[in-house]
């Protein structure tokens, strides 16, 4: 959750949704047609808003390397005749995400890059996204969903939680499970496969091993399964790559078939050397999740999620998800009156129905002035309770939770409400990032000994295997470069 970002301001600033490539209007050109003037203009207008939404673009050696690889693969599409036709950005985001928008703008998050194991996989991911743009998939999808927008059919969360007249829980689930990143309109399976096919073609033309599309999809599937296991979920498909790319596991075999017997370079050691030291997971400037605690060293706050819930840290908010309810923690403009603040958050929850608490009660939580209200709302034939619980941190800054649970079950979030607290300067200083450390396997190293160096207290071997694309039976060999995650400074 980035420092002092306002949901209301962001919702006004970003009037469109992303679908791997953005959903923008216009006719559907041929898949081989170059970037049009209209597409270039649309992309240029959207680009700064995307930067704001996804934590901003990284600079320096990591970004330059991703830009180089991205432009090399993008020119294979025929969308632009020169490398300068494309803008490739490495985003400072801790979610596994990649996308492209018309106009030659291609993006990947640093977290997704850390999951890759060679340069060909990086090219495969970016090539897949360029394939969506080349095939004009977003325009085709918009023809079927002309109302898609951040405040429309996607049911995204920007100014609090959008609650429609029906399907309330489903809409909230869609939004909260994305960690408050932009919700997107899912591509069809045929469009995903078409983008995979185009990506494989681009890899081959660029001289990369086309099997990289299959191996990176396999790593994504393994990461999804690990996330589900760590979070106690049965469903291993959320969160997933861009939230628009359904079930990467089901596409692995198709990608292998597309690659056939073709060969090419992977540039594994070069890639691993170039990403050594890259931030892994949350950036402390956006707050970090440690177990069931969220701590933000710059905002000087911390809270604990209820038992059985898991958190996802987004650019604008933290989502808290579980079987018995869902929640979001964020901020909004504050004028110094907590009761007014709570009512304003409620008023922003729905475009389709008025949601307001019967009463607002004042209290104190760990020395913080607080106020809260509850509204009972009809959702799909049942009743749910929506709670807004706000805290004053200064005369100009407040934070709040918005929660949804079955009617009469709001107590599931009581421990979380009561856990919000200020943190000391000493505690804030102890929050340091995790980073990738690329090491060379020694003669005595094993998967187990290397995994023991991972900066986690749980699932060390599983995390190490997924990070390095190793199955449960694969081993490491002396001289091989591998990634581990360590504490930075």
UniProtKB/TrEMBL annotation:
Per UniProt, which keywords does this protein have?
Hydrolase, Metal-binding, Metalloprotease, Protease, Signal, Zinc
Q: What is the protein named?
A: M48 family metalloprotease
Domain LysM as annotated: residue spans: 437-484
One CC-aspect GO term: membrane
> CDD domains under this entry?
LysM (cd00118), M48C_Oma1-like (cd07324)
Question: A Pfam family in this protein?
Answer: Peptidase_M48
Q: Which domain of life is it from?
A: Bacteria
Gene Ontology biological process terms, A to Z:
proteolysis involved in protein catabolic process
Q: Where is the signal peptide?
A: 1-22
Q: What class of enzyme is it?
A: hydrolase
Which organism is this protein's natural source? Tsuneonella litorea
Q: Tell me the InterPro entries matching this sequence.
A: LysM, Mito/Outer_Membr_Metalloprot, Peptidase_M48
